[in-house]
Amino acid sequence: MEVKFINRPQIEPYGDECWRLVGDFYVEVDGLPYTVPRDFITDGASIPRLLWRICGHPMSTKRLPIAVFHDWLYYEAVLLPREEADKIYRAGLMALGFPRWKAELEYYAIRWFGGSHYEGEKQR
């Protein structure tokens, strides 16, 4: 799976722990274009505060582009099944230069703990 970030997400604070896109954010997955629309609200990577010292702040790390895109895929659950969105997250981390072991670790963390955030699960 190939993930390309056409531009970087431009964000501004929105509330206490969320951010808002101030422009469209473009991503390609295996050549298919996706647009995360301006005004989309994200919390970035859902890293527990306890782990921020190890992993970094959810919005200040180099994982920001894939975190925003993954949040949008979870929000727009009709686009892809959850498992596919999580695989895209893993591929996106590697496209951003994360080592495979770290991408795998984060992938499994999302698989085990991310289901409550997937809008498709809430609709069932």
Helix content: 25-40%
- β-strand percent reads 15-25%
Number of DSSP strand runs = 6
Shape: globular
Radius of gyration: 13 Å
Assembly status = single chain
Count of alpha/pi helices: 5
Question: Could you give the distance between the termini?
Answer: 28 Å
Order of helices and strands: EEEEEEHHHHH
The helix/strand class is alpha+beta
What's the story with the biggest beta sheet?
A: 3 strands, antiparallel
The strands making up the biggest β-sheet line up spatially as: 1-4-5
Q: What is the total domain count?
A: 1
Instruction: Identify low-pLDDT runs.
Output: none
Mean pLDDT level: 85
Describe this structure in words.
- With about 120 residues, the chain is of the alpha+beta class.
- The chain has one domain.
- It has helices at about 50-55, 65-75, 80-95, 100-115, 120; strands at about 5, 10-15, 20, 25-30, 30-35, 40.
- The longest helix has 14 residues, at about 80-95.
- It starts with a strand and ends with a helix.
- The model has no long low-confidence stretch (mean pLDDT about 85).
